[in-house]
């Protein structure tokens, strides 16, 4: 019989608990146990980046991480990027403005990745943007609008600096 673990972590600012076997993936914990289906699962092999969430602010592939290893940490999923009143974050606004998505399946991973990228590098060059999103695959957009979205998000964030909306 598989051992079940009590897992306590903070998700999108809220303390959450779940009981799960040691082999439970973080992506499955988020989607199935906590009901946060915004985190998408594509390849389940660490290749596509769809499942990217932020762990203590750093992007991680939730399909490669065991849920138990996230215990005690802070996870931010795409559901946690908007403001508490539902106002989209600057990164989300930029993707909408610049049509940075088509089917949207890859979008949660991109939004998390880009949020972390712009925290680290607020005014990235085109090469830094390309490098920053190189771990995320999109089958629809050809990336042009995604790249434009990242630059637009940087502008929006620069404009909102000091307003606490990052
Ligand atoms: S589902 Fe995790 S990287 Fe593809
Ligand atoms: S928008 Fe469809 S996979 Fe990226």
UniProtKB/TrEMBL annotation:
Keyword Iron-sulfur: yes
A Pfam match: Fer2
Domain [2Fe-2S]-binding, first and last residues per copy: 77-151
Keywords: 2Fe-2S, Iron, Iron-sulfur, Metal-binding, Oxidoreductase
Claim: Iron is one of the keywords in the record: yes
Ranges where the 2Fe-2S ferredoxin-type domain occurs: 10-63
Organism superkingdom: Bacteria
PANTHER family, sorted: OXIDOREDUCTASE WITH IRON-SULFUR SUBUNIT (PTHR44379:SF5)
Protein name: (2Fe-2S)-binding protein
């Amino acid at each position: 019989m598989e051992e079940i673990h009590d897992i306590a972590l903070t998700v999108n600012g809220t303390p959450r608990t779940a009981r799960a076997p040691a082999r439970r993936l973080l992506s499955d914990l988020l989607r199935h146990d906590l009901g946060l289906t915004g985190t998408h699962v594509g390849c389940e092999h660490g290749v596509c980046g769809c499942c990217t969430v932020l762990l203590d602010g750093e992007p991680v592939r939730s399909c490669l991480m065991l849920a138990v290893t996230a215990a005690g940490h802070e996870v931010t999923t795409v559901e946690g990027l908007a403001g508490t009143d539902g106002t989209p974050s600057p990164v989300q606004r930029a993707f909408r403005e610049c049509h940075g998505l088509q089917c949207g399946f890859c979008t949660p991973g991109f939004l998390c990745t880009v949020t972390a990228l712009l925290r680290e590098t607020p005014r990235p060059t085109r090469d830094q943007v390309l490098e920053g999103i190189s771990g995320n695959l999109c089958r629809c957009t050809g990336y042009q609008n995604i790249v434009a979205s990242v630059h637009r998000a940087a502008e929006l964030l620069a404009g909102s600096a000091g307003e606490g909306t990052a």
